[in-house]
């Protein structure tokens, strides 16, 4: 199979003409493209999760009370930070769409 760039989709203009299933080479090629694009995002997400886990593990050496406090604080910061980011982003796009229309 010829090597294709990221700009050429596996399912292109000939989508309506395709009769049979995809070959194994085509599926592997598409999987490699997807992994090439999503691999760095997966690695960053894994490292962010590992960072909070390692912080709680270090605090665990200080005692049971410190561990429970750090666990609660980490959970609270994760939830509120995520909800604030999502809500502020949705408010921003709502204002942008009002300005456009």
Automatic annotation (TrEMBL):
ATP-binding found in the keyword field = no
Q: Does the keyword Transmembrane helix apply?
A: yes
Which keywords belong to this entry?
Answer: Membrane, Transmembrane, Transmembrane helix
Q: Which GO terms describe its cellular component?
A: membrane
Gene Ontology molecular function, alphabetical = antiporter activity; xenobiotic transmembrane transporter activity
Q: Which residues cross the membrane?
A: 41-63, 75-97
Family, per the entry? Belongs to the multi antimicrobial extrusion (MATE) (TC 2.A.66.1) family.
Q: Which PANTHER family match?
A: MULTIDRUG RESISTANCE PROTEIN
Protein name per its UniProtKB record: Multi antimicrobial extrusion protein
Give the organism, scientific name: Artemisia annua
């Amino acid at each position: 199979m010829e090597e294709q760039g990221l700009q050429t989709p596996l399912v292109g203009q000939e989508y309506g003409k395709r009769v049979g299933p995809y070959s194994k080479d085509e599926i592997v090629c598409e999987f490699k493209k997807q992994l090439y694009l999503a691999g760095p995002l997966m690695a960053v997400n894994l490292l962010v999760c590992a960072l909070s886990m390692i912080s709680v593990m270090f605090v665990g050496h200080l005692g049971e009370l410190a561990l429970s406090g750090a666990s609660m604080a980490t959970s609270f910061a994760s939830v509120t930070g995520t909800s604030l980011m999502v809500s502020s982003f949705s408010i921003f796009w709502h204002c942008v769409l009002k300005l456009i229309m």
